[in-house]
Write a structure and sequence with these properties.
alpha+beta, Alpha-Beta Plaits, 11 helices, 4 strands, transmembrane helix, cell division, Cell division protein FtsX, cell membrane, membrane
Length: 305
């Protein structure tokens, strides 16, 4: 009987405040969708870092004849065969080095033409302008500075570059987007909490006669508060459900179909459905608990029981 009464009171409260309940559902859904999207974005960045950092190399570019005339680091002239052999031998002695691959000037020119053959500048570049290099694969990409310190400034070495820096701008951009999403989520969350508090306050005020009678007959505070808390929790649960649908639809259309980023950006290792599904229980739990806690706090102030 008590359960039936609580459920009937929940239905009454939802019908009386239908517009505000709808606003709560929408605001909770948007804030939780942004929250889930931010979590997925952070996981995507982490996945891409693990994937690409394992593939990038440290490049040691060697001086050529053109560099000897223009680059201060190559003032002693182009790299000699003895210097190349010594650099390669020293690299292979290092414990942090997994593999060393030499790229000749002709190979570098061939790769350059493959990438930039249609551009205007590619037509005036000659093989003798290209630099020989050593592509160094590290066991731990974070140890780049060890190689840079050991070989930067050596005779015959023009520069030492970490290819991770090329990707870092992309990761910084994605992290910035993640922070922006979290900021918007925080704003939407504040709006949702304010709506929940106002909805509970209006609902409690509209039923002040019923709650007064319940107090007179000895009903406990928890029993009186329960319908209001359940109303907020139900609205939050619906909002959490809508947020889950938005995350699933977003993953489907952005990556697999519609925009189909997986087809257009095949070099990117996108997160799978398992990552999305793993976030849904957390979104549902927050959608259920957040409004319930907000309602409980609001009732302590606006419902004197």
């Amino acid at each position: 009987m008590r359960a039936q009464f609580v459920l009937s009171e929940i239905g009454v409260g939802l019908r009386r405040n239908l517009t505000m309940t709808f606003a709560v559902i929408v605001s909770v859904a948007l804030s939780l969708a942004l929250f889930g999207g931010a979590l997925l974005m952070r996981e995507q960045v982490s996945t891409m870092k693990d994937y690409w950092y394992d593939k990038v190399n440290v490049s040691i570019f060697l001086c050529n004849k053109a560099d000897a005339a223009t680059a201060a680091k190559c003032a002693k002239g182009a790299v000699t065969g003895q210097q190349k052999d010594q650099i390669e031998a020293d690299l292979k002695k290092m414990d942090i080095v997994e593999s060393v691959q030499h790229e000749s000037a002709d190979e570098a020119f061939k790769h350059y033409k493959e990438q930039y053959g249609d551009t205007a500048i590619a037509s005036v570049v000659t093989p003798d302008q290209m630099q020989e290099s050593f592509r160094v694969k590290l066991k731990d990409p974070e140890k780049y500075k060890v190689v840079a310190t050991a070989f930067a400034g050596r005779d015959g070495v023009e520069s030492v570059q970490d290819q991770r820096n090329i990707l870092q701008n992309l990761f910084d951009l994605m992290n910035g987007m993640n922070i922006a999403a979290l900021g918007v989520m925080g704003l939407m969350l504040i709006i949702a909490l304010m709506l929940i508090v106002n909805t509970v306050r209006v609902s409690a005020f509209s039923r002040r006669r019923e709650t007064g009678i319940m107090r007179l007959v000895g009903a406990s505070s928890f029993y009186i508060q329960m319908p209001f808390i359940m109303e907020a929790a139900f609205a939050g649960l619906l909002g959490g459900g809508v947020a889950c649908v938005l995350l699933l639809v977003g993953r489907y259309f952005l990556i697999d179909h519609g925009i189909a980023l997986a087809d257009k950006m095949q070099l990117v290792n996108f997160i799978g459905w398992d990552a999305v599904l793993a976030k849904l229980p957390l979104v549902i739990a927050i959608g259920l608990l957040m409004p319930a806690v907000a309602a409980f706090i609001a009732l302590r102030k606006y419902l004197k029981v």
